[in-house]
């Protein structure tokens, strides 16, 4: 057996209604002044207002930074960090989707009283040498797994997505509460759910750091997500399905935090950077085409995952046949959940595909994990197939 290491968030609570104890959970960690990091949509939800009422009862001061945007910029992160310093925050809560949780991670570092690093010094892998404030993450979508990953993604300039990767960013506590995902529109439920499935699949096929724990988590994540995705999409009030989705997304996050994602994400990032397509939908659009490209090298892995994705619908056959069925099923997930399946459906000009391919090649941090080497011409052909 090859040596490996495995890291994850220190504590996890998976319980419907657990977020209502958020003020108490902050107090248990010694915090009297808390900053909540979220986006305008989440901040307007009645559930969010109800949660805030618990803080005065617990005698905890709470401030809210609610200006997080999709694909958050460096300026957004810096504004949130300044808000935290002004509030003298002792603990940071990320409450929302992946963007809010990613910003919360960086705020916890940048707002620490002893932090001497600028944000530009954090970019890359293992560049964070500062302490951070205590950090709690509460996802409101079942997709990114950011609550258990040591990664934050920031948009630098107009369209370039840059990662900050460090175990320092791993939260102290992740709270999985399906009540926080009620009211999520079907399209968002579908896109974020498929995003989580991509995490599981890419972790399972990751070229460099795949290990027994990451593979075990990826398989269970894919099982949970497959069993619950369409129930959550078509019956948004189904708390059991939504809790299953949250747990599946979390397990997938634990998997890819240790066995990193690859070409699906590398090709999805330029779609978000240039056209502001939500990350989950970007992944869903390129997933079947990257999977088809990877099939020669990933055939055995895809065949192993096929029973989890297709269940009783999997037809008997050899490894090649079952891997083919797996790829075909991936292409049908988005349309069954009401998502667009072609780049042209989102008004992406065909003439931009070469630029997208060239931008995707900048994501070498991800592409090195892909089971099959990807050239710029390969990336172009994948985008053409998706167009």
Automatic annotation (TrEMBL):
Protein name, as recorded: Long-chain-alcohol dehydrogenase 1
Keyword NAD: yes
SUPFAM superfamilies: Dehydroquinate synthase-like
Family classification: Belongs to the iron-containing alcohol dehydrogenase family.
Domain of life, source organism: Bacteria
Signal peptide (UniProt feature, chain positions): none
Boundaries of every Fe-containing alcohol dehydrogenase-like C-terminal domain copy: 189-387
The species this protein was found in: Pseudomonas reidholzensis
Needed co-factor(s): Fe cation
UniProt EC number: 1.1.1.192
GO MF annotation list: alcohol dehydrogenase (NAD+) activity; long-chain-alcohol dehydrogenase activity; metal ion binding
Keywords assigned by UniProt, alphabetized: NAD, Oxidoreductase
Record-linked PROSITE patterns: ADH_IRON_1
Residue ranges annotated for the Alcohol dehydrogenase iron-type/glycerol dehydrogenase GldA domain, each copy included: 11-177
Pfam family, one: ADH_Fe_C
